[in-house]
Amino acid sequence: MDGTQRSAIKPGMTVDIVLKQDQRTGKLTRGTVAQLLTNSPNHPHGIKVRLSDGQVGRVKRIVEGSGV
């Protein structure tokens, strides 16, 4: 599942994000959502989140089986 819809992402879910410095390469970073930073209901490049380790990026994929 992609990360363009805010309603599909909840704190505690495991997601793959792309960090700002990795946008050119598309390198994904996996982590647990701590906070949603995008207020709009959707975003074409992915909802911006803060992971539990403090990294910030846009959700590219929601990892299956991480439902909260």
Describe this structure in words.
With 68 residues, the chain is mostly beta strands. It has one domain: SH3 type barrels (Roll), CATH 2.30.30. Helix content is 0%, strand content 38%. It has no helices and 4 strands. Strands 1-2-3-4 form a 4-stranded antiparallel beta barrel.
SSE map:
Layout: E1 14-19, E2 28-36, E3 48-51, E4 56-62
Antiparallel strand pairs: 1-2, 1-4, 2-3, 3-4
Summary keywords:
mainly beta; 4-stranded antiparallel barrel; SH3 type barrels; globular; YwbE family protein; DUF2196
In short:
This protein has 68 residues and is mainly beta. It is built from no helices and four strands. The chain has a four-stranded antiparallel β-barrel.
Uncertain regions spanning at least 5 consecutive residues: none
Residues in helix, %:
under 10%
Indicate how many domains the architecture comprises. Answer: 1
- Walk across the major sheet and give the strand order: 1-2-3-4
| Succession of helices and strands | EEEE
In total, the number of strands is: 4
The residue-averaged pLDDT reads 93
The general outline is globular
- Sheet bearing the most strands, described? 4 strands, antiparallel, barrel
N- and C-termini, Cα separation: 15 Å
